[in-house]
Amino acid sequence: MASSESFGAQEGHGERVVAWINERAAKDGARLEARLYGHTIRTRNFGSFEMFSWVGDARAARRAVVRASRRFRVRVIEGGYKARERVLSTRRVDYAMVRDGERVLGRLKFEAPRLRGGPWALCGEELR
Questions:
Q1: pLDDT in tens, the chain (128 residues)
Q2: Contact at 8 Å (CB) between 106 and 98?
Q3: What one-character-per-residue DSSP string does 60-101 give?
Q4: Torsion of CA 108, 9, 39, 56, to 10 degrees
Q5: Nearest to residue 36, comparing CAs of 47, 21, 51?
Q6: Bridge partner list, 7
Q7: Closest C-alpha among 72, 79, 63, 82 to residue 25
Q8: What distances in angstroms separate CA 72 from CA 12, 13, 45, 104, 128, one per listed residue?
């Protein structure tokens, strides 16, 4: 996975988190760039999140998102997970974890629109 659009930071903290992730990646020499794309997801159980996309190394992105969550004490969405079962489907589905630092608070299920270019839509959530 070289990019993902199903990552997010708690509403009101998106710019700080993305700026810190980019700054940290440059300092560590990691191939990673994150950008806000102006989409907000509202969940019933976890609050609102500003979604961002990243391009680069998946391992560095996951590590940076968890570190940003601890540093700013905010909830984040760590996306890019796929279902274990390989069921043929006409829809693109992506799974994500809601984290507060190292703790996993729950899981989210996103669905992509039928036409490319639109934002991911939340279609399910589960408390841990």
A1: 456 778 999 999 999 999 999 999 999 999 999 999 899 999 999 999 999 999 998 889 999 999 999 999 999 999 888 766 555 666 778 899 999 999 999 999 998 877 766 788 899 999 98
A2: yes
A3: HHHHHHHHHHHHHT-EEEEEEE--SS----SS-EEEEEEEET
A4: -90
A5: 51
A6: 52
A7: 63
A8: 12, 8, 20, 16, 22
